[in-house]
DNA sequence: ATAAGATTACCCATTTATTGGTATTGTGGG
DNA sequence: CCCACAATACCAATAAATGGGTAATCTTAT
């Protein structure tokens, strides 16, 4: 019996997946979570074997959640379910301790295979994902292994509201120079070159909302 | 018996939803589609009563698909399933002919209610969506019915890649001055003030991807 | 306690974006 | 045939962002 926790910010996706997986007598859905913080609470209470984790969640994002699970509960397997196949993400998640990574556009059979493989201690990556990982390093790679600080995320959110460096400084009661530094560090950490790329990254990785 | 077609670019979401809905004896899932073009093909072949439509699909987006269905098959009901609650989109979809609009983070009960209501000829909107529609116009909201031209969308996509005005000009073989004009028009149409807001809007409204 | 990282702060040169104009040509719908 | 709008192009002033530094505190985890 494989005990599974499903984490996704879309309840409808959880409902559907639960219905699908419960057909399998060998699977037990022990619980659900809509954000990273709930995931941590649920693991403690429910002790699942495997967490099906969406990386696009509010409160605590996928990479941080993965790292936290790996640290506190080393025996819990993590299978990432997502729609992003950015190289940096995948690398970051693997380094954080995920055992598998499959895209949401994959079918039923592959999902079952992934669950069984990962639950059995193996690793599983969608074909598309595996291809992305073996790709040559392209010039405009979105990000490597981004670990943004709390403050940096806060600043990105202000940027997304269309505020300028000066306006952000006023709102946070600190110097414009400091915001300038933060923006520089954000660009450097994400290996990006301008605001447009940062906002797209933030939006697509669930940093905003 | 309600005959339903499910359209979403994530096969896993379709699989789950199918499993969930098939429990109801009154519902028959007649088919699936992963993009707008497939939706049109399937409707012709399968003659469903209702289409569950994700707006974030490749090939043909949600608004255009909705308008096309309404035009060619006026009797087919359209229930939008999505995660975006931008006012402009909701308005656009309603005008295009959708009968309902619910967010993917809503639960099972509400989904069933929405399906039954819409199939019965009524309209259904999630509480969140209804709230968005009655909200007062806030200062930093993109313009409701922004109708961006083909070229403008193309330029937004280039902007999202982090390209500068000069680089976009080179890639599209036109003058930088022209790109400047387009950017100005984009900001004006959306009633925004800088690139950050444009990229966030584009990302959240499904213009990118 | 100590080292690593986060947060703060400053300066300056350069590049880009934004704003506010004007204006010509092409094109699809009524 | 016209009109509205799309797409093109140009100029110039100003605002903002980016890239290159340096450096002092403050937190936090080992």
Please characterize this protein's 3D structure.
Two copies of one chain form a homodimer. With 209 residues, chain A is an alpha/beta fold. The first copy, chain A, has two domains: 133 residues, Rossmann fold (3-Layer(aba) Sandwich), CATH 3.40.50; 55 residues, Winged helix-like DNA-binding domain superfamily/Winged helix DNA-binding domain (Arc Repressor Mutant, subunit A, Orthogonal Bundle), CATH 1.10.10. The first copy, chain A, is 51% helix and 14% strand. Chain A contains ten helices and six strands; from the N terminus they run βαβαβαβαβαβααααα. Chain A has a six-stranded parallel beta sheet, sandwiched between helices. In chain A, helix 2 packs parallel to helix 3, helix 7 packs across helix 9 and helix 8 crosses helix 9. The longest helix of chain A has 15 residues. Chain A is elongated. The two termini of chain A are 36 Å apart. About 5% of the residues of chain A have low confidence. The interface between A and B is large, with 40 and 39 residues. The structure holds a DNA duplex (30 and 30 nucleotides).
């Amino acid at each position: 019996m494989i005990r599974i926790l499903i984490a996704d910010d879309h309840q409808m996706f959880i409902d559907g997946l639960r219905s699908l997986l419960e057909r399998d007598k060998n699977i037990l859905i022990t619980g659900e979570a809509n954000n990273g913080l709930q995931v941590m609470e649920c693991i403690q209470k429910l002790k699942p074997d495997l967490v099906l984790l969406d990386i696009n969640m509010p409160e605590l994002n996928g990479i941080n959640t993965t790292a936290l699970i790996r640290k506190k509960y080393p025996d819990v397997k993590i299978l990432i379910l997502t729609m992003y196949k950015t190289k940096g993400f995948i690398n970051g998640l693997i380094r954080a301790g995920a055992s598998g990574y499959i895209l949401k556009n994959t079918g039923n059979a592959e999902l079952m295979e992934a669950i069984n493989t990962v639950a059995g201690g193996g690793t599983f990556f969608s074909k598309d994902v595996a291809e992305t990982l073996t790709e040559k390093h392209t010039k405009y790679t979105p990000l490597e292994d981004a670990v943004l600080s709390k403050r940096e995320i806060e600043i990105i959110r202000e940027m997304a509201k269309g505020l300028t460096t000066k306006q952000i400084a006023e709102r946070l009661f600190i110097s414009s120079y400091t915001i300038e530094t933060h923006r520089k560090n954000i660009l450097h950490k994400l290996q990006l070159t301008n605001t447009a790329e940062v906002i797209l990254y933030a939006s697509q990785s669930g940093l905003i909302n």
